[in-house]
Design goal:
By secondary structure, the chain is of the alpha+beta class. Helices cover about 30% and strands about 15% of the residues. The strands form five sheets. A four-stranded antiparallel beta sheet has the order 2-6-15-10. A four-stranded mixed beta sheet has the order 13-12-11-14. Helix 1 packs parallel to helix 6. The protein starts with a strand and ends with a strand.
């Protein structure tokens, strides 16, 4: 089984409409020219995201399972397939920015066409009585939420690439007043030695890479209560962290030299102060907010320089198990902040802040299958399994992650050099 679901209390049709509308709302502040740009291969044009998430429902739900449905355009399967070899040929990932056509208004017409037929299906009692079809719809919604986060981070990179560095949105009033900047407490949460069950259990949606719960023995360790801050990372920079090979893995040191890294992505120094580009424009860094847009190599180098280390993904999940309701204090896409916020003292003195939301946390764990993992048959088997090599696991979600999309067992993964996501650091010891 590729993933697991449960019915939940929200009607599926209402959820479908809400998620699809959220995607378009994220694109509303953009100009048509913004939606075509692809300044690097990792970034996909927003127009492509709009089409691809629609193609997913058309290709996996409507065409195979809705009698009489006709594709909106015979070439869209080629334009908007991402990496599914089982679904035929496709535009190369690096060439998505060459798609000046179809125009943006036609992509929105495509979305309206597919939404019309999906809403008919989701209002049909016969369709709703087929669990395998409901599972496909749920996967499509979760897939679209993944692309909502990618939209936010891709838009940020796109806007940062223009000389004007325009703001995507006005900076909102603080939503999480309890998280306003305080001096970091440098407190540590102790997780006792023991055997912990890792992986998704019980009801609710999960991806196949979270399944196959299994037990892992962990020695006692301590985890930092808060994420590493901008001020703390700036101290690493000022101490010559990017000029001292001793802190770096060899691959990371080569990247530092090759690309002349001197600070996190989006950071610039002006008149002796650090600034960074945000979705609200160029701003002076907030010292106590979490540092983000770091590669795994930078996270590891900072940890080594500071005399600590990164958690493994199993340690991270064990930490989350011991701190109830981490969702409650998260900073997610719905907040509209589009930026990490500083953590304050939690209600419990031993609590860990922002386990979910705010910033993805690099772990020192490679992205490998859990024991007993099996790739699902067909095209949907390509969703996760074939990427389980040469990537590192991240946990926790970010300020661009939809709240209903994240959970403590969620396994994100990126190559260790990637920096355009909201990626940060939680330290461990010993």
């Amino acid at each position: 089984m590729l993933f697991a679901t449960s019915a939940g209390s929200t009607p599926l049709l209402a959820r479908y409409r809400s998620i699809r509308e959220q995607t378009q709302a994220l694109c509303a502040p953009l100009t048509p020219e913004d939606t075509v740009m692809q300044p690097m291969q990792d970034v996909s044009p927003p127009k492509w995201h709009l089409g691809h998430t629609t193609w997913f429902f058309e290709s996996f739900v409507l065409q195979p399972h809705l009698p009489g449905y006709r594709p909106f355009h015979p070439q869209y399967a080629y334009l908007f397939n991402s990496y599914y070899n089982s679904m035929g040929s496709r535009v190369a990932r690096s060439d998505r920015g060459t798609l000046s056509r179809p125009p943006l208004e036609e992509i929105y017409a495509y979305r309206r066409h597919v939404d019309h037929w999906m809403e008919k299906a989701l209002a049909d009692e016969g369709f709703l009585q087929q669990p395998q079809l409901l599972d496909l719809v749920e996967l499509g919604l979760q897939h679209e939420q993944q692309h909502q986060e990618l939209l936010v981070t891709d838009i940020k990179y796109i806007l940062s690439s223009t000389p004007l560095m325009p703001a995507y949105a006005a900076k909102p009033q603080p939503v999480y007043e309890s998280f306003q900047a305080k001096e970091p407490q440098n407190e540590w949460c102790t997780v006792p030695a023991g055997t912990y069950t890792i992986g998704h259990q019980g009801e609710g949606f999960c991806f196949d890479n979270e399944q196959q719960p299994h037990q892992v023995y962990l020695p006692e360790f301590k985890a930092r209560r808060t994420l590493v801050t901008n001020a703390e990372y700036a101290a690493f920079i000022e101490a010559g962290g990017y000029a001292q090979f001793q802190h770096w893995l060899d691959e990371g040191w080569q990247l530092v030299q090759q690309h002349h890294w001197q600070a996190p992505l989006y950071w610039v120094k002006q008149e002796g102060k650090w600034w960074h580009f945000t979705l609200h424009g160029l701003e002076e860094i907030e010292p106590q907010a979490p540092v983000t847009h770091l590669s795994f190599y930078e996270a590891q180098a900072y940890a080594t320089w500071s005399g600590h280390r990164l958690l493994t993904e199993f340690e991270w999940e064990a930490l989350a198990q011991r701190h109830a309701n981490p969702v409650a204090e998260g900073n997610f896409l719905e907040s509209g902040s589009f930026h990490p916020v500083a953590a304050a003292q939690p209600s419990g003195s031993s609590g860990a802040a922002h386990l979910l939301g705010n910033a993805w946390e690099w772990t020192y764990s490679g992205y490998f299958p859990y024991p007993g993992f099996k790739t699902a048959p067909g095209a949907l088997g390509e969703y996760n399994g074939k990427f389980m090599i040469n990537q590192m696991v991240l946990r926790g979600g970010s300020c661009a992650t939809p709240q209903s999309h994240i959970r403590p067992t969620y396994r994100n993964f990126f190559h260790p050099d990637k920096r355009w996501q909201f990626t940060g650091i939680r330290l461990a010891q010993p």
